[in-house]
Structures are given as C-alpha cells and as structure tokens.
Amino acid sequence: MKSIQLVKQYLEISGLEAELTAASRLLTKVNGQKYLVETNDWKTKPVNLSVIQSFYHSLLNSSDLAGGLYITNKGFTETVKYFINANRKKEIVLGLLDNVKAKVNWLYPLDYAVNNDSLPQVKIGLFICKGGVGKTTTAVHLATILADLGYSIALVDEDPEAHLKRISRSASLNSKINCFSAHEVEHDESLIKNHNYVIYDYPPSLQTSNIYSLSELDYCLIPVNLSPMCLGLDAEILQKTFNYISQINPLASLLVLINNEIEPYHPVSNSLRRELQKTIKNTSKAHLIPFSIKNSQHLHYWGKGLSFSGLGKNSIAYQNFLALGDYLLNTLKIHPRKSFEMTLKN
Ligand SMILES: Nc1ncnc2c1ncn2[C@@H]1O[C@H](COP(=O)(O)OP(=O)(O)O)[C@@H](O)[C@H]1O
Ligand SMILES: [Mg+2]
C-alpha cells in the first residue's frame, strides 16, 4: 500500500480527520487547526533539506494552514533539524512511517546527539588565485555550520595577512572551533589532531609555506563571484587555480562555489555561469556546487562580532551555509551518517 494510504488509515484510527487532496498529500485537523500532511515513498534516501524547505514554503503560502506533518519511512538528513528549529513561522512535525506496523512515530522534539569520535578527519581548503571573493568568509561560516551540527573544527589561517586570526580574536566563534595560524601548526602538528574537520584559509597567491597543507587537502572549495570584473569571461583565473592545485594535489576534489550572487536570473549572470561550466568541464576533478551563497548584508558586515551575529539562524546567510553543509555531508558523502534517530515521545 502507498504511504499516503497508510498514513490516512493511521490518522483516522487515531481519531483525526484525513482528507486526501493530492497523490501524496492530505489535510488533517489537530486541535481545530488545519495541517497539511505530506508523505513520500522514496525507497533509498532520507528526506533532505531542500525537500523540507519547499514544504515549509508551501505552508507559508497558505494562510489557512497552522502547520504541516511531513512523513517518510526513510528518515531525514540532520540539517533538517536545524532548519525546523530556525524557521518557526509555521510548525513542522516530522513523522517516521513504520510500513509494517502501519504506524507513524512522531519525531518531536528533535533530539539527537552526534557521535563523531571515530570519524576520519577531512581537510578542506579555501583557495582561488584571486582576493576578495569570499575565501575567509566561507571558511568561517562553513566552520560555524559544521560546528553547529556537532563536529569539531580546526580553522587554520594560511594567509600572511592573517584576516582569519584577527577576526577570531574579536568574534566569538562556536566553542567547537579552534583557530590556529599556519605558523602555530607548523611548530606543533598535534594541534589540529582530534578535530573532525580541518579548514584552511589560503591567500590568493600561494607561498612555499602553503604547499604542504595544500598537498593534503581532500577538498578544495573555490569561491567565485559572477561578476565580469571578478571572473574574466575567459575564466583564466579559474583555469590557473585548477592547474595550480592539480599540480600540487592531483587527488583533491575541486568544488567551485558561486558566492555573493546578486541576481541569479540576470542575463549576464546566466552567461557567466555558462562560461564557468565550460571551464569546469575541462577539468575532471572539478565540479560546480549546484547552488550559490547569495549576496547578503550580513556577510558584508560579519567581521565585527559573531560570525552569524544578530541575524542568527533565520538569516539567508545561515540558510545558504546550512545548504552547503548539507551538500558536503549528504551529497558528497563526506562523513555520511544515517539519518538522525529520534527519541519518540508517545
Ligand atoms: N555573500 C556575500 N555577501 C556580501 N558580502 C560578502 C559575501 N561574501 C563575502 N563578502 C564580503 O566580501 C569581502 C571579501 O570577502 P573575504 O572573505 O575577505 O574574501 P577573500 O578571503 O577571498 O579575500 C568581505 O568584506 C566580505 O564581508
Ligand atoms: Mg581572505
């Protein structure tokens, strides 16, 4: 039987109305308020952030709905929890369908703990032969998201200008983040041990002192801006960056991240994106991350205070970096983990 039918039965047995409205949707009433119920029958994958984001947006667009119940038999990726905690204009309750017992286990509250002691360490670098595109911004905000998700992070400032080190002194970072200068790590390599991730922030032109850590990266994140002045139409800078990294570290995955995007559908933005894709196709290790970090006031002014100061988890910036975290963890399967196990409150 399809999940939606099982859910309908279950709701009715529990004494709730359940009116089918579409192939995988129904409406129910809880304490006199309308809730949209959505199910999916995916066989293999936990429900991810983008699915829950669009579910949330469909709730926001219907003023008569108090919230929604999202039900799956495959679980949810861990970033879903953070999204729901941060977005409370409409209530979302997650449900795990047990097809055999025809029962829904409501996953609420969403408590789970990360057990990450035995994970292999992953090294990620931020590099492109270009300044001012968001290397340092991405390093700090990605570190913050991963720390919020329960991982421990060593942030290493490889830039002689030491922007990162200076910011880490004035900003209060998540306590799971430790920030070091390359110099400190050179003297005592054990400093970065016992962290799930090491994130390196490089200068736009490499010095010999940067070569060693670069040669050890698993992933190189390459932020680009879709502005003709930043990325020449011939994408020369990007090709140079690819060549540079591949020479030193042919095994690293090269992940291009569009940052500071202003208007995704602007014609110039589109044509630059196509140019970008051409360059990326020529390099086998290179991939374009399928979404962008948007231009935001917050990321423009972030250095003073917390990395996500003021705007907190509701900000577009937080949601964008959450999507990046979700992509790294679940699409690239860096530290793949089973969907979170829920404590059931019945
Ligand atoms: N998505 C964004 N929206 C708005 N401003 C941004 C964004 N990303 C970066 N910035 C700003 O651009 C400037 C350069 O960023 P930075 O991370 O220092 O670049 P890099 O490390 O590559 O030199 C900073 O002032 C930063 O606040
Ligand atoms: Mg920088």
SSE inventory with pairings:
Layout: H1 3-13, E1 19-22, E2 25-30, E3 33-40, H2 49-60, E4 67-72, H3 79-86, E5 91-98, E6 103-107, E7 122-126, H4 135-148, E8 153-157, H5 163-170, E9 177-181, H6 182-187, E10 197-201, H7 208-215, E11 219-224, H8 236-248, E12 253-261, H9 267-281, E13 286-294, H10 297-301, H11 316-331
Parallel strand pairs: 3-4, 4-5, 7-10, 7-11, 8-9, 8-10, 11-12, 12-13
Antiparallel strand pairs: 1-2, 2-3, 5-6
Helix pairs in contact: 4-11
This protein binds adenosine-5'-diphosphate and magnesium ion.
Molecular structure report:
The chain is of the alpha/beta class. It folds into two domains: 3-107, Trna Endonuclease, Chain: A, domain 1 (3-Layer(aba) Sandwich); 122-331, 3-Layer(aba) Sandwich (Rossmann fold), CATH 3.40.50. It is built from eleven helices and 13 strands. The chain has helices at 3-13, 49-60, 79-86, 135-148, 163-170, 182-187, 208-215, 236-248, 267-281, 297-301, 316-331, and strands at 19-22, 25-30, 33-40, 67-72, 91-98, 103-107, 122-126, 153-157, 177-181, 197-201, 219-224, 253-261, 286-294. The strands form two sheets. Strands 9-8-10-7-11-12-13 form a seven-stranded parallel β-sheet, with helices on both faces. A six-stranded mixed β-sheet has the order 1-2-3-4-5-6. Helix 4 packs across helix 11. The protein is elongated and about 70 Å long. The two termini are 25 Å apart. It binds adenosine-5'-diphosphate and magnesium ion. Residues 131-137, 163, 259-260, 293, 295-296, 299-300, 302 line the site of adenosine-5'-diphosphate.
